[in-house]
Amino acid sequence: MALNKAVLAAGIIIAGVAVFFAYSQFVDLDDLGIPLVDDFDFKQTGLDGRAGLDGDAFEVGQVSTVEASDTELSLPDLFTRVEKSVVQITDSDETDQFDSRLGSGFVYDNNGHIITNDHVVSGGGRVDVTFLDGTVYRASLIGSDPFTDLAVLYVEEVPPEKLVPLPLADSSAIRVGEQVAAIGNPFGLSGSMSAGIISGLGRLIPAQEAGDFSIPDVIQTDAPINPGNSGGPLLNMRGEVIGINSAIYSTTGQFAGVGFAIPSNTIDKVVPSLITAGSFQHPWLGVAGRDMTPGIAERLGLEEPRGFLVMEVVAGSPAEAAGIRGGDEDATIDGVPVKLGGDVIVSIDNQTVRKIDDILVYLQREKSVGDELQLTILRDGQELNVTAVLGARPSQQESP
């Protein structure tokens, strides 16, 4: 794929800073065949579910009413502790039963809010929530964010004893190798548990409901996850949610040893806004480019291949306002088309940038719309400091 064609096609704006996937030093997950856990042809819909609801629906209730265990639980004890808080989500197309889909979710607060994946409930059909005892409640979609694949449902008149929120862990403290468990409804088999370990951290996966944006800081697990697990919790052994299961790596549509979960710290940051406002504003810089490679570093005369090479700056973006420069010299390095002459971002807020992931994770964890971002860049062999004021990421429809 030619660089200019990719840039013109989508702008490649990812989590506030865009990256050209096809030539990045990490593998393009789309090319590897990573589907969402429920691999359907999803459609983006509006939030008509907010209409007609009273103000209570848009207030965050008490979160994590059940405290985490002081000690690590056995798998049977963990399942018993959390099973009643995990639900099945059904998005039914009333005109075409074959276009319906199943997913999972879990209780977020005691005010009737259920968390699931955006891709589970974006079909625009009738949404029902089924608790473990088989009782079914009609749900309203009141908040959705395709950029993190999160959505919030609201169910009314549910008995208080059914609304037992699961506690959220601090996902920044988890480590590779920790034992985890996934609970959900694979293939519609309700109340199913699988177990494994955290097999990777800080992954970057495509947000397939949001064009060419991607989700940063994602948890990788080898706990078996299959179609129907989408939206269910990934738990540590103390009964805390560390993530929400969202995607798998597979060439067949079935689990192949690698699953992905949106971290609990992202849930904690995004979901309250989905409840109160229906959406979440992501901080956005507006550049496109690629990670540094040894070949590019040698061509630029850099001692170390680190940083993010800016090749395109989006018109009207915070990056343009800050004076960030894109490339103006077409070149081929190691057989890959590259546009040279642009700035190289080597740090943000005194945090070292070795690749695009460092920028994406930092923006996701630490920044909000309107915040200042201090960038250290290399330009014509000189190190410069510039300040950008982060804007709100344009919607998929507004993206160039």
Produce a short descriptive summary.
Helix content is 14%, strand content 34%. It has helices spanning 3-10, 29-32, 75-82, 264-276, 294-300, 318-321, 356-366, and strands at residues 86-92, 101-107, 113-116, 126-130, 136-145, 150-155, 179-184, 192-206, 214-221, 233-235, 241-249, 258-263, 283-284, 287-291, 308-313, 329-333, 336-340, 344-348, 351-352, 372-379, 382-389, 391-392. The longest helix is centred in the C-terminal third of the chain and has 13 residues, at 264-276.
Protein model, in words:
The chain is built from seven helices and 22 strands. The chain is an alpha+beta fold. It has three domains: 3-16 and 282-392, Pdz3 Domain, CATH 2.30.42.10; 48-71 and 83-166, Thrombin, subunit H, CATH 2.40.10; 172-272, Trypsin-like serine proteases (Thrombin, subunit H, Beta Barrel), CATH 2.40.10. The strands form five sheets. The protein has a six-stranded antiparallel beta barrel. A hairpin with a 4-residue loop joins strand 5 (136-145) and strand 6. The longest helix has 13 residues, at 264-276.
